[in-house]
Design goal:
The complex is a heterodimer of chains A (213) and B (99). By secondary structure, chain A is an all-alpha fold. Chain A has one domain. In chain A, 77% of the residues lie in helices and 0% in strands. In chain A, helix 2 (28-49) runs antiparallel to helix 8 and helix 5 packs antiparallel against helix 6. The two termini of chain A are 34 Å apart. Chain B is of the alpha+beta class. Chain B has one domain: Arc Repressor Mutant, subunit A. Chain B is built from four helices and three strands. A three-stranded antiparallel beta sheet of chain B has the order 1-3-2. Chain B is elongated. Classes of the chains: A mainly alpha (213), B alpha+beta (99). Chains A and B meet through helix 1 of A and helix 1, helix 2 and helix 4 of B.
């Protein structure tokens, strides 16, 4: 009995130490919202590029010819960058609102700073790589590179927040790897990775961490 | 209750031990953070932090953020040592149980 009590006390201490040092401000709703942004962005991209990519019958030359028009690609790239900036802003705004509601201060402390650095190092490397590929006319692997590096960024920063974020990273990585080996359908993979997975994960996150209270 | 050598009376309370766990892990924490982590009422948390302050294990820093008063608790060197000694005593006890 005694031994059990002591063990329990030590476990409680350990749990409190790790729980308190986690970054808990990320809101599940913001993950759902960025999933919706991505849905809108991929629909817009589909309209610009031509819907051919969504259908299995895309392997005709016409589709690729349309893909490779520089202006259209530029529109899609701007679309993606805009969506990324908007998503980032959304995550921050929701995090601030969530902290306020829980009566906590939202501060750029050392932990948050470290988390952002760990998140952005893989993301920036991947972003620059895909930008270089687009500029040199290699469009084929762009979506898988974005998925892979985004997955790496999530895995890399997940230990600062709820460990479950790691699984979102794994999901993006697996999808990115499948995408690497699949010809075309880039937009479809992009849609699944950035929209469907975010929405599903966001709902799970809300149910797990934010339903109580 | 069996006697365990080296246990600290101050840490007999689960709440005080919880406050110390948060502060050891983070160095400092404000009142609202502690309150939500430990799920306590204002009065309950205040009385326990006062206890810890009196024995010199934590330090209280009051300031204003804009117009709102903000209370932050910081762990002292003494508090860190006392906490480590308490944990060591618990672990020693577990080891003896096993052998």
């Amino acid at each position: 009995m005694e031994e059990k009590d002591v063990k329990q006390t030590l476990d409680d201490i350990r749990e409190m130490m790790s729980k308190s040092s986690r970054f808990q401000a990320i809101s599940g709703w913001s993950i759902i919202v960025i999933g919706l942004y991505a849905a809108v962005a991929s629909l817009m991209a589909a309209a610009v590029i031509g819907v051919g990519d969504w259908l299995p019958c895309c392997e005709n030359l016409q589709c690729f010819a349309v893909m490779n028009t520089p202006e259209r690609i530029r529109i899609v790239v701007f679309c993606a960058i805009g969506m990324f900036a908007l998503s980032l802003l959304t995550v921050f705004v929701f995090a601030i609102v969530k902290s306020k509601r829980n009566n906590l201060r939202f501060v750029f402390d050392k932990r948050m700073y470290q988390m952002l650095i760990d998140f952005f190092i893989p993301l920036l490397a991947g972003g620059l790589l895909s930008m270089a590929l687009v500029m040199q006319g290699h469009y084929g692997l762009t979506s898988s590179i974005m998925l892979l590096f985004y997955g790496l960024a999530l895995v890399n920063c997940s230990h600062y927040t709820y460990p479950i974020l790691r699984y979102l990273g794994y999901a993006e990585l697996i999808l990115g790897i499948i995408d690497c080996f699949t010809m075309s359908h880039a937009l479809l993979f992009w849609f699944i990775g950035f929209s469907v997975i975010h929405i599903v994960f966001g709902i799970a996150y809300v149910l797990m961490f934010e339903r109580r209270k | 209750m069996a006697i365990i050598d080296g246990l600290n009376k101050v840490f007999e309370s689960k709440i005080r031990l919880g406050i110390m766990s948060v502060l050891v892990a983070n160095g400092s924490a404000d009142f609202a953070t502690l309150k939500s982590l430990l799920e306590l009422t204002d009065g309950n948390l205040a009385s326990h932090t006062r206890n810890l302050e009196e024995v010199g294990y934590i330090r209280c820093e009051k300031k204003f953020i804009g117009r709102k008063p903000n209370t932050t608790y910081v762990i002292t060197e003494e508090g860190r040592e006392a906490f480590a000694a308490h944990i060591a005593a618990l672990e020693r006890f577990l080891k003896e149980c096993r052998s």
